[in-house]
Structure formats: C-alpha cells, structure tokens
Inverse folding.
C-alpha cells in the first residue's frame, strides 16, 4: 500500500517554496514553454525533462555515433533542455558529451550532473576533476555519489568542495528500487541537495518514503529509468500498438510522453532523465515537459489502465 | 561496489546499445579493408590445413587470429566501451600463447575416433572460419553482431574450439578450454541483453566443445 501522494504539510511547503513555473524555451513561444521546477536549496529552476546518458552515449571513439549524439544534444538544447546526467561508470559517455559540447559550444544554460563512482574514499576530487575534463567543463553543477559507493568518505569531501565553490550542489543516487533504507538514513541526517532514484509507472516504491522525505526536507529529486530501461514502452506498444485517442486529453501524444508526464507530475520530482540516442525520441521526450501536468485523477486512471504491466 | 554486485541484473553489465556494438564490426571492416578478404582466405587455409592433418600451420593461423582479434577488436574498440574488452584482450593473448605452447610441446595428435567429437569439431571449425565470410556476402545482417574470423571474437573463438575438439589431447583441454568457454558465456549473455536473434550461437558452441571434450576424455585410455 503506497503512502499518500502528499501530506498536507508537505503540500503547503511545496506550494510556498516551489510553485511549478514555466520558462520559455529557446523558441520563445508561450505554446512551447518548458515547465520548470525549483531546487529548493539554491533557488535555481530546472526544466522537468533532462537527458540521461547510460548506454546511449557510450559509443567510444566512433566518429559517426559521436556526431549523432552531438545532434541529440543540439536538439536537446534547442528544446530548452538543461540537465544532462552521466557517470564514470557509463564507459565513454562523458567523453562523448565533451565531444558534443566542443562541437556545439557549451550553452550557459547547461546543468551538468555527474557522479562520484569509486570505492577509494580519497579519490573524490581527482575523479571529479577527470570527469570535468572529459566533459570539457570547468566544474559541475551537481555531483552525486553513485549508488552510495563509499558515501561516508565522499560526502564530507563533496561538502568541502561545495563550500569552496567547486561544485554547486551535491547528492546521492540509487536505482532499481535498491538501497532505500540507506538513502532514507542519509536524507534524514545529512544535508544534501539532490537524490536520484528510480521512479516510473511500475516502480513506485519511492512514493512510500523517499519522495515524502525529499519533499519535507527540500531535497530535489531526479528520476532515472522513467521507461524502466525501455521495457515499459515495449510492453505498452505490445498491448496497445496504436496510442489511444484519449491520451490527447492529457496533452500527450506518445507513450514516452505519458510515461514521463506521470513521473514529473509527482510534486516531489524535480526532473526526469530519459536516455535516448535518437533525435526523434528526444523530441517526444521533451514534449512531456510542456503542457499540463497530470492531476491525481489522471494518475489514478493511468494506474488502473496500466497497473497490470 | 563488490558488495552490491549481487543486486545487479545482467543488463547493468552491458553499458552500450546494440547499434554501438554492431558499429564496432562495421568500423573494423571499413577501416581495415581489405582485412575481411584476408580473413576469408585465412579461414579457408585453416580448414585446408586441418583437413590435411597440418595441425601446426592450422594452429599458427588460429594463434594469429586470436592476436589479431585482441589487437583490432578487444583492446582498442571494445575496451573503450567496457572493461570486458581489455580483460578479454589479455585473455585472447594468453590463449594464443597457450595454443603455441600446446603445439610445440604436446605429443603428436591423434584425432578422436568418436563421430560425435569429430563432428562437433568440424562443425565448430567451419562455423568459425568460413561461414561468417559466406554469410557476410549473402546477408551481412546475420553476422552483424559477430564479425569475421580473426577480426571478431565469436568466430575466432568458435574456430579455436573446433580445433581443440578435433585435435587437443585430453590433458591439454583443461588448460586450453577455459578462456574460449568463458568468452562464449560472456558473449552469449551480451548478445542476449542486446536482444539479438543469434545470441544462442556462442553458448551453443561452448556446449558442443564441452560435449566433445567429455568424449575425448572418456576415450583417452584407448589413445596411447
């Protein structure tokens, strides 16, 4: 049984501090305004749809695929996208992002999010610096401890780096519904700005504790695996080859759109980071960041219809 | 990190897409042209030598094939995507050395009298050497995820398993089989995660090689 979506106390806090707002996309049109949410610890606003790079950007030195990923980045920035998330664990993804940023020029709007992924607790700064070189950026907007690896050692160092102005935000990550107990302890006892976790239509464990805690403590939430690694879209298309007409009532046009809109319509979620290697899919994903969010009735309807997935 | 490994599903160990994996072989064939023609010729030569009992030249060609695959696929291209590439680059080089030692030190070869072992060996040797080149001419989508002999790991390893099934003495199988069998398992898992229709080929090759090894071990008292 999942906890209520919101307690009244949390709802009031969200309304008071983080009213979802709109920001004009680079197209400058109200009709294409990208929905943003606010990072409560810094006051910065982020579009609700970001870009993940697990698997999709790990293309090595392949010049054709590197340029293709640069086109994904170009389309992402053109649609007003800001948050890009990577990790040293993702093979060559960081270098491929760096290739794209060198080719396109790094926009001032970029919100670069990477991770510390080493069991060597003394290597925090070294790995962060190497990652920044791979990205071709001077520093990161967000550094997250990947899957809580050696977090006890990394977190104090990240805190110092934040005080020194080397990184603007710090956080922790988990995925696949794992490590929620440890995440809860950290969220309740350590001052962090972000948590990244898996949240999608069929993996809603985070609603029980982590999302309410995040809302209560003003911790921004990045939702990874919004399509459950692509599996959700495959299963939806297998059951419903044609997207039903009623999706339009929700301002949605594709399965990717509705799945992402479900994720970012949770009040505690700041943004989702779907990964893609295709520009056409990128546009579908970014559409979920425009138009209305799903209300409780919409979400319940989707859960009834797709709950058996 | 190690304590978390048991929570990882298989797909978390494959940090790239099917498109990227296929492109590895496309790039090798294009950038190293006419290496695919050399691969076809080398594969045919292995078959001819094996047919005529020329085990030393057949082995040397397979050694070169393993070294070539390590140099053009594992280390530079696959190793960029995953540490598995670098690990098996060294694995393939190690296997190449072991094959050389085997051929230089082992007693003269007496091929198995068992139709099963011989049959497995022939199937594997043909499948690893010339079949990929033939299929590439007919429909390269079939070999898109495997590459060619001496340029791609699957055909090269399958050819090695074929030679071992035909010619390796039982006491050498314990030394020569582990690395190729491990690759067959890892490759099968990789191709399965990437949802390729022929993901069963490397594991099936491993099973055939093992079946042949069991037969060779059982018949060894009769092989003086």
């Amino acid at each position: 049984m999942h906890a209520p979506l919101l307690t009244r106390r949390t709802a009031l806090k969200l309304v008071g501090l983080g009213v979802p707002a709109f920001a004009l996309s680079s197209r400058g049109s109200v009709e294409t305004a990208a929905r943003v949410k606010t990072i409560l610890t810094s006051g910065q606003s982020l579009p609700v749809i970001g870009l993940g790079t697990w698997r999709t950007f790990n293309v090595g030195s392949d010049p054709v695929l590197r340029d293709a990923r640069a086109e994904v980045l170009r389309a992402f920035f053109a649609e007003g996208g800001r948050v890009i998330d990577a990790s040293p664990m993702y093979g060559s993804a960081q270098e491929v992002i760096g290739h794209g940023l060198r080719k396109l020029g790094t926009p001032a709007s970029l919100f670069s999010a990477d991770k510390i992924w080493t069991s060597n607790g003394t290597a925090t700064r070294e790995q962060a610096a190497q990652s920044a070189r791979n990205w071709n950026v001077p520093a990161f907007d967000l550094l997250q401890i990947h899957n809580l690896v050696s977090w006890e050692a990394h977190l104090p160092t990240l805190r110092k780096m934040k005080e020194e102005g080397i990184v603007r935000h710090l956080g922790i990550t988990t995925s696949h519904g794992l490590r929620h107990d440890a995440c809860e302890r950290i969220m309740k006892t350590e001052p962090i700005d972000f948590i990244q976790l898996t949240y999608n239509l069929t993996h809603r464990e985070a609603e029980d504790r982590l999302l309410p805690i995040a809302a209560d403590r003003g911790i921004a939430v990045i939702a990874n695996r919004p399509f459950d690694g692509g599996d959700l879209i495959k299963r939806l298309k297998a059951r419903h080859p044609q997207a039903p007409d009623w999706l339009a009532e929700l301002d949605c046009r594709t399965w990717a759109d509705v799945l992402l809109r479900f994720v970012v319509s949770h009040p505690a979620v700041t943004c989702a980071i779907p990964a893609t290697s295709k520009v056409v899919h990128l546009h579908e994903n970014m559409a979920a960041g425009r138009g209305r969010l799903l209300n409780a009735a919409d979400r319940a309807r989707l859960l009834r219809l797709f709950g058996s997935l | 990190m190690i304590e978390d490994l048991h929570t990882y599903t298989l797909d978390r160990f494959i940090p790239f897409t099917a498109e990227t994996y296929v492109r590895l072989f496309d790039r090798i064939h294009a950038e190293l042209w006419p290496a695919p023609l050399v691969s076809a010729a080398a594969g045919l030569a292995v078959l001819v030598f094996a047919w005529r009992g020329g085990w030393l030249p057949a082995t040397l060609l397979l050694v070169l094939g393993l070294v070539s695959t390590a140099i053009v696929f594992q280390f530079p291209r696959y190793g960029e995507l995953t540490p598995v590439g670098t690990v098996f680059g060294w694995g393939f080089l190690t296997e190449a050395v072991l094959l050389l030692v085997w051929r230089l030190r082992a007693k003269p070869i007496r091929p198995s009298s068992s139709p099963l072992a011989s049959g497995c060996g022939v199937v594997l040797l043909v499948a690893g050497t010339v079949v990929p080149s033939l299929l590439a001419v007919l429909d390269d989508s079939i070999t898109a995820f495997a590459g060619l002999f001496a340029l791609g790991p699957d055909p090269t390893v399958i050819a090695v398993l074929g030679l071992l099934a035909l010619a390796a003495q039982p006491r050498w199988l314990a030394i020569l089989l582990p690395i190729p069998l491990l690759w067959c398992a890892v490759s099968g898992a990789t191709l399965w995660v990437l949802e390729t229709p022929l993901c069963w080929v490397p594991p099936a090759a491993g099973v055939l090689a093992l079946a042949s090894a069991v037969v060779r071990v059982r018949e060894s008292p009769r092989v003086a």
